[in-house]
Amino acid sequence: MTDLEHMTRTAEHTEAAALADLMVSVPPATSAPDGLTGWLESRNVRRHNRWVRLWHPVDTPLKDTPQTDLRVTEIGPADADEFARVVRDAYGFPPEVD
């Protein structure tokens, strides 16, 4: 399946779930796959910024959730250095940007 076929399926699921927004994260060190910009424009997706927000109601369990030690928690100022490291490593930024 091509990238655009995956995106089309994602958009169809988003529309079927009546979600208001579809956000696409393209890492800054890469270029968009061929045709992605036109595909997004054809669906009235507008450029916002480079951050994706994930949201799910806490009272509804996710289906088919694998067992993991991963935990999702709120972070605060005390976590700034660790957050900066994760973002830096994920996006390939040099250490000087911390």
What does this structure look like?
The chain is an all-alpha fold. It has one domain. Helix content is 34%, strand content 0%. It is built from three helices and no strands. The termini are far apart. The mean pLDDT is 77.
Write a short abstract of this structure.
This protein has helices at residues 3-16, 36-42, 80-91.
Key features?
98 residues, mainly alpha, 3 helices, 0% strand, globular
Tell me the helix content. 25-40%
Structural class: mainly alpha
Number of domains: 1
**Elements, N to C (H/E):** HHH
Strand count, sense and closure of the main sheet?
none
Low-confidence stretches: none
Distance between the termini: 38 Å
Q: Shape from CA axes? A: globular
What is the averaged pLDDT score?
Answer: 77
Share in β-strands? under 5%
The gyration radius over C-alpha positions equals 17 Å
Quantity of strands, as a count: 0
Number of helices: 3
